[in-house]
Design goal:
This protein has helices at 2-16, 19-22, 25-30, 36-60, 66-73, 75-105, 111-125, 129-158, 176-182, 184-191, 201-228, 240-244, 249-278, 286-297, 305-319, 321-328, 330-333. 74% of the residues lie in helices and 0% in strands. It has one domain: Hydantoin permease (Orthogonal Bundle), CATH 1.10.4160. α4 runs parallel beside α9 and α13 packs across α14. With 338 residues, it is mainly alpha-helical. The protein starts with a helix and ends in a 5-residue tail after the last helix. It is globular. The longest helix is centred in the first third of the chain and has 31 residues, at 75-105.
Length: 338
């Protein structure tokens, strides 16, 4: 049971840590200076949201997100949010594909080779349906999280940073709401697809609490590190590279590979959410559906990685606030659900 809980925990983290988060771009977009309390609130909100989504998914024994969505937002709004989730998964997967291209450019590799690499990888991954994604998450994410924490702690020690120096200044605490809301729709889509695979409530507890604590801790350390080099971030498409420039090229290569896999797993989660929703409409193998979706997405990646995050993410963060409110208030209305 505990092992299965970690499996779902890595699925949650893999869905959340993509091109925007792992690169630092998404964190800097929402947090930045005076955000310690905001990150603590995000960790709490995220844990509660994951627990409620998994609880509903487990109770409904769902295999796609629609039954879960009906419970969370109500029957009247289900159609609206169904469209929103579909568009969100589609556009954020475009962001992931664009992030793969941007990662390649950092090493003077053609943008399109980066796009081609992730496209082929996604199609190949789904030849094994959802099991391929779960396996990749369990192998790659411990390496990514460990590597990211190692670099951030190393940077903190080398630069003699005091991570807690500005804790008395917390005017940006409201950023916790749109940032948490931003990450909710893909979680509904992905966790709604595995309700019939969860075996016990203990798995839910491990997955929700573990993912919230890990993401909250990394977010705080990462954001504090970025604050120290705020003046340099305008020069970098991917803020993480502003930190990595202080270290040997081998570390840059290693972290870039892990960053690419973070992008890859989030893109895979997006494809999974769309495919499980469309399986009753298009009765074709998931890998074939992935191929069709990717072909449609590729032309949209030309908008640019940071441009997509700058405009798309804040808009969805605001639109999802209603869903976040419903999740956080679930103890008050959950006993009335049909």
């Amino acid at each position: 049971m505990l092992g299965s809980g970690f499996k779902w925990m890595f699925l949650i983290i893999g869905t959340t840590i993509g091109a925007g988060y792992a690169s630092g771009r998404e964190l800097w977009q929402f947090f930045g200076h005076e955000s310690g309390l905001a990150i603590l609130l995000f960790s709490i909100f995220f844990t509660v949201s994951c627990y409620v989504i998994m609880h509903v998914s487990y109770r409904k024994q769902s295999s796609d997100y629609l039954p879960v969505l009906k419970v969370i937002v109500g029957t009247r709004l289900t159609k609206i949010y169904d469209i929103m989730i579909f568009l969100y998964l589609f556009t954020t997967t475009v962001v992931m594909i664009a992030g793969s291209g941007a990662t390649g450019q950092a090493f003077r590799i053609s943008y399109w080779w980066g796009v081609l690499a992730i496209s082929i990888g996604l199609i190949a991954l789904f030849l094994k349906d959802i099991n391929g994604l779960l396996t990749v998450n369990q192998v790659v994410l411990p390496l990514l999280l460990g590597g990211l924490l190692y670099i951030l702690f190393l940077f903190t020690v080398d630069q003699q940073l005091n991570l807690f120096i500005n804790l008395h200044e917390q005017r940006n605490w409201t950023a916790a709401f749109p940032f948490t809301a931003l990450n909710i729709l893909p979680l509904i889509a992905v966790l709604g697809a595995i309700g019939n695979k969860v075996k016990s409530k203990r798995e839910i507890h491990v997955a929700a609490l573990g993912s919230g604590v890990i993401l909250g801790t990394i977010s705080f350390i990462y954001n504090s590190s970025l604050i120290q080099i705020a003046d340099e971030l305008l020069l970098y498409e991917i803020p993480l590279f502003a930190i990595l420039k202080h270290y040997p090229f081998e570390i840059l290569i290693f972290m870039s590979i892990l960053l690419w896999f973070a992008i890859f797993t989030t893109a895979a989660s997006g494809i999974l959410g769309i495919a499980t929703r469309l399986k009753n409409i298009c009765n074709i193998p998931i890998w074939m559906m992935a191929a069709v979706l990717i072909l449609v997405m590729i032309p949209l990646t030309t908008l640019g990685f940071s441009t997509l995050i700058s405009y798309i993410y804040p808009v969805y963060g605001i639109l999802n606030l209603y869903v976040l409110t419903r999740l956080l208030l679930y103890p008050l209305w959950g006993n009335k659900e049909v």
